[in-house]
Automatic annotation (TrEMBL), chains A, B:
Lineage of producing organism: Bacteria, Pseudomonadati, Pseudomonadota, Alphaproteobacteria, Rhodobacterales
UniProt source species: Paracoccus broussonetiae subsp. drimophilus
InterPro entries documented for this protein: NAD(P)-bd_dom_sf (IPR036291), ODC_Mu_crystall (IPR003462), ODC_N (IPR023401)
Name of this chain's protein: Ornithine cyclodeaminase
Superkingdom in the source lineage: Bacteria
Length: 355, 355
C-alpha cells in the first residue's frame, strides 16, 4: 500500500532569506517599517494579555544563544537568536535569527521564518514607534552613533515613522560610516559623516547609540548630552554591555520594554535595583506619562523583547497572504490515524519494484 | 549590481518527514534504534558536561508547548514539542516536534529536522538502553499497556536492544491493540492481545506503561505487580498525569533522567519531595547501583529529557553524511560584509528590467 500524501497540516510555510528580501521590496522598505510598527504598537497596547518570561540564554565564552518565547493565548511565538561579537571578524553575522509561530489550541507550527532581516526591521520599527511618542515635537535630525548592520534600518524607520530628514553619522571605523552614507544615498535623507560622537549629536533631537562592544563602554559621556533630546539606546543589550555614562541615566526619564529583562541586560544594569523606570506600554495606554517638558531627556533603554518578534511574525503572516513568497516545508508527521505513526513509517518503506 | 549568491553558511540542512522516513528505512528500523541508543548512552555517560535546565513550558487549557534546550559546550540543541491530548479526536498528532542543532562557537544553526518521528525513536531507544541495564537477566517478554503511537517503537527497541521476543498488548481501545498487532506482524515478535492489564503482565519481565490520559490514572495497581520485574513508565510525563499507584513506587527502586524535571512531571510527583531516586547516568558510569537482586522491582520513571533529543540530533547529523536525505534551507542572512545587511537587502531589489 503506498503512503498517503501528507495533508495540508503537515506543511509549514517557510520564509527564506531570499523570499524575505523579495517580500520587503514588494511592500517597500519604509512602508514595511511603518506596518511593522503598527503591529508592534497593537501588541504593546495589550501587553498584560501576553505570557511573558525573560529569554532563556545559553552563554559561552564566544557569545550567547537565546530562545525568546511568548504567547497571547491564541498564538505562540519564539525566536532563536545568537549574539557573537567575534563573528564579524570571521565574515559571519554577529546576530542571526529564525522564528516560529504556532497555534496554541493544537500546538502545530504555522510559520517558520528567517529572522535576521526581520529582527533588523522590527528593532528599528520599535525604536521609531517609541521615538514618535517620546522625542521632542518636530524632531528632524538623528545622530547615529555606531554604523553597523542596524544603522540604515534605524535611519529609515525614524524617517518613515517620526519624520526626520537628516542623519549625522559617527563610528570609530570610518569604513562603517562610508557604508551607511553609500546605502542611504538615494533615500531622501541628508546624511552627514562626523569625526566624533560629540560632533554627531550637534543639533540632533534624537540620539541613537548602537555599537557592538561586549563590555562596559561609554559612547556618550554626561557632559555631551544637553537638555531636550530623546536617546534611543539599543546597543547595550546583554549583561556587561552598556554604552552610556550612568550620569546620563540619572538625568533622564528612562523607558523600558520589560523591566525584569532590562535590569539584567540594559543600560540600567549600572543603576541600583530600584532605579525608577517606566514601562513603555503604559505610555501608549495612558496609565503612565511620556515626555512632560521640552527640556526633559527621555531615554529608551531597549534590549529587544519577545513580544516584538511575535508582532513581527504576526505581521509577516499577514504579508504572506495572497503571495508566493514562501515554501511549504514537510515538517509535521501526519499519519491518517494519529495513533498510527509507526504504520505511516512502515508504509513509506521502499517498495520492492523501486528497490 | 546583482546580489551575490549566498555562501554555504547561509544554508541549513533540513530533514523533512519524508526524508526522515527514507533515512530510517535506509538504516533499517531496528538498526537505527540500536545506533540511537548508542549515541544516547554516550551522552548519558558524560551527563555532568551538559548545560541542563528544565524545559520551558507554555501551558494552555488544551495542552502545552515546550522548548527543550541543552548544550555540551560545543553543540547546542533544542527541541520544540507540543502535547495536546485532545488532538487525536481531531485527527491530529498529540505530540509533534522539530529540533535544531547549532554550533556554540558561532551560534549558527547547522541542522533543522522534523522530530515527531525522531522523538518516537529516541524515546524507545532510551527506554531500551535503560531496560538493558535494569531488567532481570534473560528478559524475553514485555507487557505493553497503552497501544498508541509509541507502542511499536517500544516493542522493536526492546527486541533490538534488550533481546525480547514476545509482546503482550493491552489498551482500553481494542482497535489500538489491533493496530499494533497488524504493524508488528512481520517483525519476528510473538504478539499477544490481552483483555486486561492484569492479563498482559502475566509472565512479562518488562512492563511498559504508555497511556495518554492527562489526569491521575492508575494503570497498574499495587497488587498487580509481582517481584523481579522492570517497569518502564513513560506515559506520566506532565504535571497531573501519572499512571502508577503510589504503592508500586514505594516498593520499587526508582531511576530517573533529571530529578528537578521528573519530580514535577513524572510518576514521583505523587511522592514526597525527598523520595529517593537514582539518576540513571550514575548507573552507567558506576557511581550508583542498578538492579541488585532478582526479586527487586526496578522502575524507570521516564519523562524525556533534552539531552536525549540532543543525542538524536547528533546521531542524525552523522546519518546524513554522504546521503541526500535532506534539503538545504536558505535560512541565514549572509551578506558579503557582515555589517552590510542593509546593502544585501538593497541589492536584492528587483532590477528595472525585471520589474
Amino acid at each position: 500500500m503506498p503512503a498517503s500524501p501528507p495533508s495540508d497540516l503537515a506543511f509549514v510555510p517557510f520564509v527564506s532569506v531570499q523570499n524575505m528580501m523579495r517580500l520587503i521590496h514588494h511592500r517597500g522598505i519604509e512602508n514595511a517599517l511603518r506596518e511593522l510598527a503598527e503591529y508592534i504598537e497593537e501588541d504593546f497596547r495589550r501587553w498584560p494579555s501576553f505570557n511573558k518570561t525573560p529569554r532563556v540564554a545559553s552563554h559561552s565564552a564566544d557569545g550567547v544563544i537565546e530562545l525568546m518565547p511568548t504567547s497571547d493565548g491564541e498564538s505562540y511565538g519564539f525566536k532563536y537568536v545568537n549574539g557573537h561579537p567575534k563573528n564579524t571578524a570571521e565574515g559571519l553575522q554577529t546576530v542571526t535569527a529564525f522564528g516560529v509561530l504556532a497555534e496554541v489550541s493544537s500546538g502545530y507550527p504555522v510559520l517558520l521564518s528567517e529572522m535576521t532581516l526581520l529582527t533588523a526591521l522590527r528593532t528599528a520599527a520599535t525604536s521609531a514607534m517609541v521615538a514618535r511618542r517620546l522625542a521632542p515635537g518636530g524632531a528632524r535630525c538623528m545622530a547615529m552613533i555606531g554604523n553597523g548592520a542596524q544603522a540604515e534600518f534605524q535611519a529609515l524607520a525614524m524617517k518613515a515613522i517620526v519624520g526626520i530628514d537628516e542623519v549625522r553619522l559617527y563610528d570609530i571605523d570610518p569604513a562603517a560610516t562610508r557604508k551607511v552614507q553609500r546605502n542611504l544615498a538615494s533615500t531622501g535623507l541628508t546624511v552627514t559623516a562626523c569625526a566624533s560622537a560629540q560632533e554627531a549629536i550637534l543639533g540632533a533631537q534624537i540620539i541613537t547609540t548602537c555599537t557592538a562592544d561586549k563590555q562596559y563602554a561609554t559612547i556618550l559621556t554626561d557632559n555631551m548630552v544637553g537638555a531636550g533630546v530623546h536617546i534611543n539606546a539599543i546597543g547595550g543589550d546583554c549583561p556587561g554591555k552598556t554604552e552610556l555614562h550612568p550620569g546620563i541615566l540619572a538625568r533622564s526619564e528612562v523607558f523600558v520594554e520589560y523591566p525584569p529583562q532590562t535590569r539584567i541586560e540594559g543600560e540600567i544594569q549600572q543603576m541600583p535595583e530600584d532605579f525608577p523606570v517606566t514601562e513603555f506600554w503604559e505610555v501608549l495606554v495612558g496609565t503612565a506619562k511620556g515626555r512632560t517638558s521640552d527640556q526633559q531627556i527621555t531615554l529608551f533603554d531597549s534590549v529587544g523583547f519577545a513580544i516584538e518578534d511575535f508582532s513581527a511574525l504576526r505581521c509577516l503572516r499577514d504579508w504572506l497572504k495572497g503571495t508566493s513568497y514562501f515554501e511549504r516545508l514537510d515538517m509535521i508527521a501526519d499519519p491518517d490515524d494519529p495513533r498510527d505513526l509507526f504504520g505511516m513509517l512502515q508504509r513509506a518503506a521502499p517498495s520492492e519494484d523501486a528497490a
